[in-house]
Amino acid sequence: MAPSLTPPVTPSSFPRSPTGTPSGSHRKHMSLGRRAEQQRPPVIFRVLSTLLPIIAALLLVTTVYLFHLHHAHHSLEDGEYGLDFGWHYAPGGGVANHSSSHHSSPGGSALRHKMDLAHFLLKKYNDARAEDGRKEAMENGGWRGGSEANFIKLVEKISHKDGGGKKDDGDDGAEAASQHTAGGDDGDDDEEEEEEEELDGNEMALKASNNNHVGKDTIIRKKGDPSVHKMSWQQLQRNLIDKDLLPHPIPSSHAARGFSGLPPHLTPAIEGASRGTITCPSSDASNPTDPRVERVLSSMLAFWNEPRGVRDRDAGTPKSQMGREFVPPPLDAKEHRRRYLTFEPDTGGWNNLRMSVENILTLAAVSGRTLVLPPTQVIYLLDAKKGDKKKGRNYDDFFNLTENAELMRRVPIISSEEFLKREGGVDGLVPLDGYNATYREHLLSVSKNCEERKKSDIYCEDLYDHFLAHGQLSPVSAEYPNENCFLFDADVFNHGEEYKYKLDPKIKERVSKFCQKRSPIFYNRTMHEAPLWHFETMDFRYRLLVHSYAFIFFTDPRVGNYYKRFVRDFLRYHDDVFCAAGKIVLALQYEDYLLQNPVLSSNDDGKKSLQSPKPSFDLDSELMGGYSSLHIRRGDLQFKEVKFDSLTWYQNTKEIWKPNEVLYIATDERNQTFFDDFRNQHSGPLRFFDDYRQLAGLDDLDPTLYGMIDTVVASRGTVFAGTWFSTFSGYIIRLRGYYGVSKYYSYYSWLDRKYFMHHWTEVGGGSWYAREYPVAWTSIDGENFVDSDNEADRDDNDAGDDNQPGKLFSREDMDVMKAKAMVVNANSVHKRGVIGGGEDISLAGLRDDEHLGRGIAGRPMNSTPALIGAKRGHIKRCDVNVDTLAYWNEPQGARDSTFVTPFGDNQQGSKPKYLVFTADKGGFNNVRMSFEIIFIIAAALDRILVLPPEQPMYLLRNDGAKKHRGLDEFFDMDGDDYKKRVKYITMEKFIQTEGHPGGQFPVPADKMDDILRASKVCAPGRLVGEGFAPCDIIHEYLVEYAHTPNITAAHHQCLVFDKGMYIHGIPDDINAAQKFCNEEGSDMKERKMVFVTKSMQRPSLLYVQGGKPPTRMLAHFYGYLHFTDSAVGNYYKRYVRDLLHVRHEIFCAAGKIVKALQDAAKKEGFSIDSEGGGGYSSLHVRRGDFQYKKMRIPAETWYENTENVWLKNEILYIATDESDKEGFFEPFRRAGHNLYFLNDFREQAGLDTIDPNWMGMIDVIVASRGRAFAGTFRSTFSGYINRLRGYYGMSMKNSWFGQYKERRMMHEWRNVNLDTYAREWPDAWMGIDADVPPAEDVF
Length: 1339
Hints:
The chain is α/β, with parallel strands linked by helices. Helix content is 34%, strand content 9%. The chain contains 43 helices and 33 strands. The strands form 10 sheets. It has a 5-stranded parallel β-sheet with strand order 5-4-3-9-6, with helices on both faces. Strands 15-14-13-16-17 form a 5-stranded parallel β-sheet, covered by helices on one side. A 5-stranded parallel β-sheet has the order 31-30-29-32-33, covered by helices on one side. Strand 4 (370-373), helix 11 (405-410) and strand 5 (413-415) form a beta-alpha-beta unit. Helix 6 (201-209) crosses helix 20 and helix 38 (1144-1163) crosses helix 42. The radius of gyration is 36 Å and the shape is elongated. The protein starts with 42 loop residues before the first helix and ends in a 42-residue tail after the last strand. The relative contact order is 0.08. Residues 1-39, 68-121, 128-156, 158-222, 599-612, 796-806 and 818-850 have low confidence and may be disordered.
C-alpha cells in the first residue's frame, strides 16, 4: 500500500489537514530516509546537541584571546612581511579586497599577529631553500625557444637533420638560466596606486626594465607591466586599435576547431554551421565595447556553433538520416509537450550541479520532454553580493537556456511555478486539489523560491515530494555502490529487453568497455511513456555526479555524437561571462606583447639596444596564446595529496612555462603571500582574477558568475596546469578541448598524474567525474565512434607512465614535436607535389581540409599569412563526395575575410555607388574573362555590382524551353562566403531600389513597366522579335545617368591601381606599373597606363560597356589589371579563385565522370595523385567555328605531336566539338588508348537531367584533372583548363599544346603579353597566397 500523500503535521510546517490521496496518482516509489518521518531522539541528546557547539565556540574564542595577549607585544611591524588580510576570495577563484572586516572584527588583530609570525617562520625556511631552487632552475631550465625566430631556426635545424629532433645543448641552456636568475622581483606592483603615463610598446618595455642590472650579453628579465591590468576597458581597446594589434577575427564559417575537428568530408554535421556569437552588454553606455573588438572576442571565445549545421537542425524530421527514437522532431513556436521531466539539483558546488544538469538536459531531449527547472534557491559556494535582493539562483541565471530559441524547440524549458500553473489543476498531471488551501499556497510559494533547510517554511523537498508522488522515479544512479550506465539502443527500445542479447558483438564489446563494473540499464518504453519522469538527484542513492558522455551511451554513434554536440552548443554560459572573460584575455595578451616586444639587451660596447617589436600578438589560428594559466585549488578540496605549497607547484611545472611568460592563476587561495615562492622562481608576472576588477567591470556583474569567468580565462592559456581531482580544473580542460587545443598543452600539477592528458583514456580510466575525457570533444562532429585523438603520440622514451613520468616534457619538447610535424608534413607533401601549409600546424600534421597551398602553386605556411583561418572548399548539392575538385578556399583566410579595399569611397553617410556592365558577346569563356575583370573593378572600388538582365548568349541556347540565361546560372552565387563578400544585386532589384521617384536614378513613369520587364529578361535587337524585350531600353536608361570610363582591355591599355596615385595623385611605384604595361624582353607592345583615380570613383553610377569596342573587356584580369602593391594584387587573384567558380552542380556531374575514369584507370594499374587528380590524361581538340585555321590540324598530326606525352595504353579523355568522334580520333585508338568523351557518361553523370548549357563547363573540369593535358593553342577553352590545373597545383610541365610549334609553350615562364587572352599565364595561380610577386624559377 502506498504511503499517504497527506503531509505530516510538524512544528515547522504549515497546518495541513488530511484530505486523502488524489485520484489517479502516478506515484511509483517513495524514497525512505529523507521522506519518512524521523523518530524524535531522547531529550538528553537534544540538550547535549545544543550545548556542545556553544561550549566549543567559547573555548575557541578564549584560546584566540589568550594567544593575542601573549603575542601582541612581540608583533612584527605592519607590512614587514607583506601579509595583507584585506584579501578575500570571491566565489570561483577571484580575490576581493575587504580589509576593513578583519581590522574591525573581534580577534582580528590577534589573528593577524599569529599569521604574521607563522609567515615569518615560513619565509625564513623558504629563503634557505631559494638558492638551491635557483641552481636547480639553471640546470633544468624550461622552454628555450623564446621567440618565433628561434622556432623557425628549430624547424630548419630539424629539416637539416632529417627530422631527428636532437636538442641543441649549446648556449640556450645558459640563456635560459640567465632569464631565470637575472635580478629584480616579479613586478606585480599591486601596491602601486599612482596612475601610470600611457606608453607605447617600446617605452613600456624600457620602463618595465629600467631597474634591472644590465650586463654584457644578458637578456633582461622584464617585470610585469604594472599598467595593463589597471587600464580601463576603453584604454585597452584604444591601445589595441590605434596600434593595430587587434587580432583578425576567425571567420564565422570556420566551425571545426583545431585538434578536436575533422576534415569537412568527415563532418557533414557542421555543413551550414557558423561559429556562435557573443554580444557584450550595452547597459553601460559610458564603457561600450567597440564592434571590432566584440567581433574578435566573439570569434575567440565562442566554442559552440550557432546556427548549428543543417543536419543537426533537421534532426528528428523526415529529412534526417538518424533514427527518430531518440531524436524527437523540433517543435513549432506555438507547440509544447505535455510530457515532463522534473529533477532536483545536486547538493555540491557549481561544477557538480553543471555535470548533473548536463545529464538531465540530454535526457529531456532524448525522451522528448518539457524540462521543469527546480525552484530558485541558494547554491553552495555561490554567494551573492551584499544587498542582493534576489533570493538564490537558478540554472537559467548562468546558462543561456530559455533565451535560446533553437534549444527551446528541442527542449521546452519552464519553471516549477509555470509547471504548477499548467498541471496543478484537477485534470493536471500534478494536481493540488488533494491538499487544503494553505498547503496549496505553500507549494505555490515553494515553486518560486525554496531552501534546503528542513525547518524552513519554504522547504524544497515538499515540492519534490509532490512531483515524485505523481511521477515515475528514474531508477538510474551514478553514485557508488549503485552505479549504472544508461544505454540507448533503438532495437531494445522497440522490441524489448530481451533484444539486448541479440546486439551485434561489436556493440556488446563497446557496451562492456563503456560500463565496466557499472550495472547497465536500457532506456525502455515504460520510462518513455511516463507523463512525468522525476529524477531524485539530490538523494545520494540517485545522484548523477558524472559527465553525461560518461554515463549515457548510444549504440548508434551518430546519435551519440549528436548529443555531445547538443551539450557543447546549447549548455553554455551567458554572454556576460564570455565578454568579461574576453576583456581579461585581451589584457593578458597585450601585457605579454609588451613584455616580449621589444627585448632589451646589451651590445658589445655595453650599451642598451632596443629591437623592433613584432607587429602583432603571438597567437595561433584559434587566437589562443599570449599567456599561460593554472588552477590552484586550496579551499575545501578533500583530496589532501594534491594540496601543496606554491614552491612545489613551481617545481612540478617549471619546465612548461616560458621565461617572462605571463601566468594567470585561477585560485581560491585567499593569502596572496602563498604565491611568493612561485613568484621568486618564475621570471614573469603572476596575474589573478581580482587584478581586472576595473578593466573587466567585475563589480558590476553578479559575483555568482565569477568562477565561470575564471574558468573561461584559464581555458584560453597557451599551456594549462590544473589540480587533479578538481572538477573546476576538469571543466577548464573540457573547454580547451572544445577550443581545439593540443592535448600536450594541458597538465596536472600532481606528479603522479602530470601527463594524464597526454594519453588517450577511455571514460572510467580514473574517477567518473573528477576529470574530463577526450571523447567529450574529439571528433564529435563526425559520424563514428571515437577511439583515439587526432594527434601523434610522444616517443616512449619521452612519455613515461603515470607514476614514473620519465624525463620532463618541456615547452621546447612541445615545439620540437611541432617542428617535426612541419618537417614530416613538408616531406610527405613534397612527394605529393604539395608545398603549401595549412591554417594551423599541429602535432599531428595537417588535415586534408588544411592542405591549402596546392601543389607547386603554393608556398610554405610561414609565407602565406593570407591562408590563416581558411578551409578548403566543399562541393555542395551533390549526392557523392567529389570534394577533391574544390580548388577554392571557403571560407577564405581571416585576413582576406576582413580585407578593406584602399580604393573605396570612405565618406560616411554617402549613398551607395554602383557598377553596371554589359557582358561580352562571345562564347562563355569570353563572357567569363570579361566578367572577371568587372568583378574585380567593382570590388576594388567598393561598389555594388549590378548583374545584367538574363538574355540569350552565344552558343548557350541549348535549352529549348529557355533560351536566355543569367550569369548566376553559371557561376555559384549562392555560397555563404560569396554572399558575405560580394556586393551584388540584379538589374531588376537595381531598378526597384533606385529607379523610383525618390531614387538616385529615377525612371520616367511612362517607361517604368517596359524597363522593369527588360530588367528581368532582354535580348539584342536581332532577337527582339522572338518575344524578348529589347536590351537597348536598359542601355538607354543607363547612359542617361551613368558615366562610362574610358577603359578597355582589348586596345593596348592596362588599368593600374596605385594607392599613392589614388589618394595623393602621386604614384607609389611608377616603375612597377611601367614594367607591367611594357615588359622588357617580352612580346609586349607599349600599352597605355590608365590609373584609377578619385575622379573615376566620383560618379555614383559607372557603366562598363564590356561587350563591344571601344570598351570591350576581352583579356585575362591579371594581364589587364595591375596593383602596384603585390599583396593587394594577390588578394584579388585569390578573390577570383575562391569566389568566382562555376556552380556546384557542374562540379558534381564532372566529379562523377572523373571518378568513373579513375576507377577504370585503377583497374589498369594507373594511380591517382594526392590531390585527387590523374589516373587518366586528357585533351581538348577544338574543331568547330574556331577562327584560327592554322590551329585546326588533323588527328594524325595531333597524335604525332603528343605521342610522347601519353603513357602506354593510358586512358584518354577528350573534350571536343568534333562531331565525328569515332573516325576522327582513330589514330589514338590504334596506339592502344581507350578514349572517352562526355557523352559516354550521360547516364552515369545524369547529364540529361541538368542544364544542357553546362556541358562545356563539365568538359573543362574533367579535362583539367588529367595527369597530362594537351590543348588547342589560342583556345580560351584550353586556356581555362590550364588555369584550373594551376589552381589544382599541377605542374605546367605536364601541360602541352597539340600544335607542334607551341607544344612546349607552358613549360617556361612567360609574362603576360599583348596576346593576353589566347592562353593562360602562371601569374594567375603561382604563389598567389603570398604577399610578394611569384618566383619565376618554379612553376
